[in-house]
Amino acid sequence: MKLNIHKPCSEKWDAMQDSPHGKFCELCSKHVVDFTDKTEKEIWDIFNRAGGKEVCGRLPLSFSKIAAGVILITNLTFSQGQTPSHSFETIEQSTTSFTKLSGKLIFKINKKEIPGAEVIFIHKNQYIKTQTDENGNFTLEIPNELISKKNVLYFNFNVLNEKTIANPERKIPNVAGGDIYENTTIIFTKDEKIIDKTFVIESQKFYLGGISIMTDSPPDYYFFDGKNISEKKFRKLQEENPGYSYFVFEGKEAQAIANKSYIRTLRLLYSNKSL
């Protein structure tokens, strides 16, 4: 799929008259849509309404915002104002490539699919989340730039478990017949394919035992939107922004996400700019 710049416009963007949806080009006597502040859906809607007719538009130099969706435009008059035209090769190179992850969640106790579970790809800079459908299936598309040597896929059942516990008709099960899902993490390598893979989820485990204080333990790390910050600043951000998304990992999962071998606990806070 290629972007076809049918007829580049020589008129400067700043010289055009303002209009509700962009500019009006007196040279061409046409309205020019400003695509630089449009979402992918808004861009598609504009071309659908055009019904195959030519659309005049202003596009950003970086096509990363629209590369996934508007690459198959066939007739587009292009205006970049004072910016020189760029070759097709430059446009195509900005296309983001993805790694697809897909699978199914099954509860070990009753062998049934688990609908409505959160499936989250965790990266210290951001997270990408989806939910399993009514058949327990999920699909995620991860930008390749976020794929590391080791990666973490997190199955979160907190919402489902809260509904189960709050159910007034629930009978408290014994350990063998537990009805609470265990939050589960999967570590996979960059070369490992997670396609249509079935994951068997255990019932939640409870631990009993003595508590001791350990000395000389590995350090804890605190990240906010991918930036390593102090515990004090982390706690302050968390307290002031209760709507921010928060995750905590230990052991191998923490090592994989932080890319550090000497770490005890990794705490991640996101300003919900993630996908």
TrEMBL record:
The name this protein goes by in its record: Uncharacterized protein
Source species: Chryseobacterium daecheongense
